[in-house]
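Researcher: Structure for this, please.
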Amino acid sequence: MKSLWRGKDLSHRFLVTMIVITAVVFVAFYLIGYEHPFSEDPDFIEPLLTPVLLGLMILVVVLAVGVTLWAVFVTLRKRKGAPRVVDGIPVATISMTVTIVTVVIMILAFLLGSSSALKVNGDVYADPKWLRVADMFVISSIALMCIATAVVAIASIRTHLKNRKK
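Model: Predicted structure, token format:
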């Protein structure tokens, strides 16, 4: 009998569950009370389900951070005596390179981030630290996605060229 708690099956079920919950919350957010006016200024809208959407996003972030910390802890415990090269792949080097590149990109994005005040819905946000932190996450996310895309493209091209020579 197949177990419901096996790694691949469990992660797939969790992914599908999160997608369904997110889709339902976003659809409800836009369809239920979306045109509800803001009590302090009727020119702005205050969707009725904003607290539900924010709660879901906070839950997702907390779960992601928790799972990441747990995965790092488990990986570090398992790797103590593990080989540095597995099937000709320098696992330790790749892992260390990814960690260093991520940290460097986040530091550079924080240092290069804007600290200019923002006016949102009539409120001015001027705390330079938090403005830079927000910029850091946006810039580093875009940079890491671009790097990941480039690495996948290069690996695909190399594999394609290698297979063509055979």
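Researcher: Any notable elements?
Model: Helices lie at 7-31, 50-79, 91-112, 128-165. DSSP finds four helices and two strands in the chain.
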